Each structure stands twice: as C-alpha cells, then as structure tokens.
Amino acid sequence: MNSDKIRNFCIIAHIDHGKSTLADRMMEITGTVSKREMKAQLLDSMELEREKGITIKLTPVQMHYKGYELNLIDTPGHVDFSYEVSRSLQAVETAILVVDATQGIQAQTLANVYLALEQDLYIIPVINKIDLPAADVDKVKKEIINLLGCKEEEIIGVSAKTGLNVEQVLDAIIEKAPSPEKQQSSNLKALIFDSYFDDYRGVILYVRIFEGELNKNDAIRMMAAETNGLALEIGTLTPEMQPKQTLSEGEIGYIVTNLKTTREAKVGDTVTLQKQPASTPLPGYKNVLPFVYAGFFPVSNEDYKDLKEALEKLSLSDSALQFEPENSPILGFGLRIGFLGLLHMDIIRERLEREFNLDLVVTNPSTNYQIIMNNGEELEIKSAADLPDISEVKEIREPWVKGEIILPKPMIGSVLNLIVEKRGLQKNLSYIEDRAVIDFEAPMANLLTDFYDQLKSITSGYASFNYELADYRAEDLVRVDFLIAGHKNDALSVMCHRSEADAIGRSVTKKLKEIIPRQNFEVALQAAIGARIIARETIGAYRKDVTVKIHTGDRDRKAKLLEKQKRGKARMKRFGKIDIPSDAFTVMLKRD
After folding, report:
1. What per-residue string of b and e applies to 452-462 under the rule 16 or more CB within 10 Å gives b?
2. CA atoms within 13 A on the CB side of 579
3. Which runs of consecutive H residues, i.e. helices, occur in 372-488?
4. More confident site: 38 or 59
5. Within a 13 Å sphere around the CA of 392, how many CA atoms are in the beta-carbon half?
6. Is the per-residue pLDDT at 49 higher than 60?
7. How far apart are CA 504 and CA 527, in angstroms?
8. Which residue in 342, 376, 392, 450 is deepest, having the highest Cβ count within 10 Å?
9. Residue 44: what pLDDT?
C-alpha cells in the first residue's frame, strides 16, 4: 500500500485506564473482528493478563478504515516493561494518550508521555470513561492541557466500553496523524519491537519496516545479535496471522523465522538482508539486564529437573529472563533467577505454578551489588551469600532508582516520611491541579519488599508510583546473617545499610519465631554481622511432664527423672534437626 495511506499508532496509558477496551472498540468499528468473535480485551490472550486485567505482552493489529491502513500496537502499561514500550513507540509515528476521567493523570501516564515525547511522536489526547457517574471531565481536561500544552478542542472524550465517540478517535488518526516518512535507501532496515517463541513454528518477530522491503524466504540478519535466519513466512496481524508475499516500507507485520530462541533476535534489534545488508542499525538498541533476583527452589528435590526444563521453555520467549543453578544446604538444589522487576517475578512464578504444576519455595528478592576489591578487581553479586570476605572488600555499590509518585495534596507529609524511612532523597515537588508529583531517589533494595504496599496503604490507594534505574552508589553496606540453632542459613542472608541492620535483625528474628514451629528442645534464632550477634529470639521447648507417672511424693525419684529429661534435651539440641517451613524464606515480604 502507498505509505501516504498508512497510519502507525499505539495506545499509551496507566494500568486499567482502558487501553485494551479502546482497542476492542476500534477493531469492532473497523470490522477487523466480527461481533461473534469479539470478547473483552481481545488482544490480552494470556490467561494471567485476563485475570489481572493488565497487558503483559504487547500485541500489534492491522485495521482498514475509510481506505486507510491503520496499524495499532497495544503496549503494556507497567514500569517493568518500559523498554518494550519504548521500542513500540519507536515503531510508530502517533500515540493515543488515554486518561481515565475518574482518576486523572497517574505516574505511568507521565512516564509514557515522556517516552513518547522523546521519540517525537504526535500525541492525540483521549479522556476515557466519560459515561461514569464519578467522571470529572473538566478537571482531567485541565490536567492534560497543563501536561501537553494542547487546546481543549483537541481532547476527545470517549467511552471505550459503550463505543461513544470512538469513531472520532479513528477520524483524528486519519486526518491529523502523520504518515510514515519515505526513505531514500532500498536496503532493508526493520525494527524488532517484540519477539516470542511458538512451540510449533519457532521464533516469531513483530517488526516495523523502516527502509526497503522484505519478501518471503529472504535470508535475514539480526545486526546486534549477529545471527542469521530465514523469513519462512511474513504477513500482517488482523489479529490472526495473514500471510503475504512482501512487507513494504512503513508497514508493521510479523516474520516467522527458523531461529530457536529469542536470544538470537532480541527486542530493539535491526533486521536486514544477508545479500544487501544495511550499513548502520536503527538507533536505541540496548541489552536489557535484570536487576531483581530471587532463588526458586522446588519443595521436593525430585522436581528440580522439571523446574529447570520449565524455565528453559519460558526463557525461549522471554529474552530478559536469566537464571543460574543455586545450592542451599537446607532448600537443596534450585535456580537463582533475574527479573526486570517485581511484577515480572510475580508473573513468572505464577506461570511456573500454573502451566507446569510446580510447588515452589521463593526466597526474598534482592538486587545486584557491585563490589570493588582492595586489589582493584570489580565483581557483581546477585545475593548476600555471594559476598566475598569483607576484609578484602574496598567498597560496595548498590543500585539507586529515580522514582515519581503522584498523590492527593493532603497526603504529601506521610509519603515524604515513608521515602525518608527507605533512605530516599526528595528531589522535587510539583503540582498538577489538586495533586502533587514527588520526584525522589532511593536505594532499589529498600523498594523491593513492601514499599508499594505501604504507599498504597498510607494513601488509601490513591497514589501511583513509577521508577527507573538511576546509577550505582557506594554506601556503608553490611551482610546480615540469620542463625537457626547455631547454623547459618545463606538463603535468609540479606544486604542492608549498617544503620538499618539492627532493626532488620530484630524484626526478622521476631517473625521467624512466629513461623518456625516449636521443637522438643530450645531453639535460638540469631541475627549477626560477621561474628557480632545483633539480635536474638528463643523458641521455647515443648515441656513434657515426665513426673506424671510417679504417684508417690518421693523427691529423689522426681529429680532423677527430670535430670534424665534435661540430658536428653541437651543431646537433642546437639543433634536435633529443625524443620524450617517455606514461609520463613519470604519473611522479608511479610509485614506485621
């Protein structure tokens, strides 16, 4: 098709503001999907997406309307997938900004708008859910005008659920949105904005053709990964695959390849032809690195092989997923897995439990640390257990994040206190109508466990939070170990700031006392930094009254039996094995 008649756009919004519902109405109005085939959030095909009501994997779809070809990409809204969102934004010329009329601008709305402005996209502002009784359209219009500097008449009010005014959005895309720029070069350059593994067909790439054209059975090359492959089938998505012979400049489509894993064709890479390769790749590619790590152990060691095979299958379609074997004296064999964030970790854990029927013990999530040794050597560790001898360490650097919280004005004080509690630094405070925007920096490790829960709790659910990795900073960090009956347990060890070590030690030993069942002998729970004990709790022994069988009042016989019991308990304490329940390994995630 002539590129003047092509419009490439994506929908950006905060979670639950109605991206996928708006996409449903567009597909209905353009006749892409018939009423009979229609279901809510049609593009969210994964069971978890439908259950949680969020988009996890982005989906492109091609629609035809009034003689124009409209290519839509439905992007994820969550911060963990912001790199995927940035690549999707690079693949289009226009962004539809959807804002909920009842909630207004939220943290991820801002983050995604900044990404769209970085890519120099044309933005069409849309207010959704205008038919709800709680909708405050005038207030939300003012917020959008403050953010984008647009005119009030440019903002379109819609109800994605009922379809009200959705045709106006489609007309605005045709009339106002720019068409793809024509390029001079005929050498193929296509951006991979998503890739996944199909059990029957291999790796499938979603691409936007920027220059040249691609034909079926062409030999292709991924420029950053330096891998070669074949375009076994190409075509567009409506949302089912529609094979074609050629994909031309400006079009969005798919390529079925002969590759075996997404690591050979990562998001952001440039596809070119082996015969006539392009001289330079498209800009913006980066290798996505995980910065949240957790140990996954099967409850039964017999399931270790199944866990490894399950993760290998998941990693075929998720190039950001990294794992390596880990061995714990108590939990046995397991895997240490790297994630993009806590939502990513939650999704992988649920998929392992549901799709592969695995029963898992997941240890406390931690982040990675950079270690500078006295001899100048640099190491990277992914858990506190990997920390080398502290006498040989010059400094420990931890990752810090830049965060942004949007919240109602009356709650500023309590949220600032929470940021200070987490060793955070407030950088800026600004206002959008009746809400405040707090910019802050904080250590990643302190936001991993229950920061989001506490934020939602103290703001009654009204605050929204967004973050990105800033840099690594040298801090006075220590490793806190936890000893159960004198035995150190590496799976419980944590890295923390020296000023927080005593409080964490006391808190975790108290929680362990509640979780670990009583034994027939006394059990000491201790927190230690090196050889220095900083906190202790004791689980009392069960008391069995051994004198109950003596009916006489003979003091000597009673003393003899009690002494025998005392010796037995002392022997038990030396040789007794303590059964540690799986809850103990997620003790840092649980709040009182």
Report:
1. eebbeebbeeb
2. 6
3. 412-421, 444-448, 451-458
4. 59
5. 9
6. no
7. 9
8. 342
9. 45
* Angle value at C-alpha 186, between 181 and 191, nearest 5 degrees: 60
Give the residues across from 159 on adjacent strands: 164
Domain that holds residue 535: 478-586
Which CA distances in Å does 79 have to 84, 319, 454, 556? 10, 17, 18, 72
Confirm whether 348 is domain-assigned.
yes
Per-residue pLDDT, 242: 86
Amino acid at position 569, single letter: K
The CATH number of the domain holding residue 581 is 3.30.70.2570
| The pLDDT of residue 425 is above 70 | yes
pTM of the model: 0.72
Domain count, the chain: 5
Q: Which residues contact 474 (CB under 8 A, 6 or more apart)?
A: 372, 395, 396, 397
Residues 20 and 89 reside in one and the same domain: yes
In 553-584, which positions are buried (b, 16+ CB within 10 angstroms) versus exposed (e)? eeeeeeeebeeeeeeebeeebeeeeeebeeeb
Same domain for 456 and 534? no
Where among 306, 333, 362 does a domain terminate? 362
* pLDDT of res. 226: 85
- We report the CATH number of the domain holding residue 82 as 3.40.50.300
Q: What is the DSSP string of 51-110?
A: HHT---S-EEEEEEETTEEEEEEE---SGGGHHHHHHHHHT-SEEEEEEETTT---HHHH
Q: What is the pLDDT of residue 435?
A: 79
Across 428-434, average pLDDT: 82
DSSP string, 307-362: HHHHHHHHHHH-TT-EEEEEEETTTEEEEEEEESSHHHHHHHHHHHHHHS---EEE
Q: Are residues 463 and 497 in the same domain?
A: no
* Residue 283 is assigned to a structural domain of this protein: no
Show which of 308, 341, 362 is a domain's final residue: 362
Assigned domain for 278 exists? no
CA dihedral 195, 280, 82, 86 (to 10 degrees): -100
For residues 286 and 563, the model is more confident at 563
- Other residues' Cβ atoms within 10 Å of the Cβ of residue 405: 23
Please return the burial class of 515, using the count of CB atoms within 10 Å of its CB with bins 0-12, 13-18 and 19+: middle
Q: Are residues 316 and 266 in the same domain?
A: no
What 416-421 contacts at long range (C-beta under 8 Å, 24+ apart), as own/partner pairs, is 418/451, 418/454, 418/455, 418/458
Q: Which residue has better confidence, 162 or 462?
A: 162
Shared domain check, 135 and 10:
yes
Residues 228 and 332 in one domain: no
Same domain, residue pair 167 and 60? yes
Report the distance separating Cα 372 and Cα 104, nearest Å: 45
3-class DSSP assignment, residue 478: strand
Q: pLDDT tens for residues 124-169?
A: 999 998 888 888 888 888 888 888 888 888 888 888 888 888 888 8
Is 520 inside any structural domain?
yes
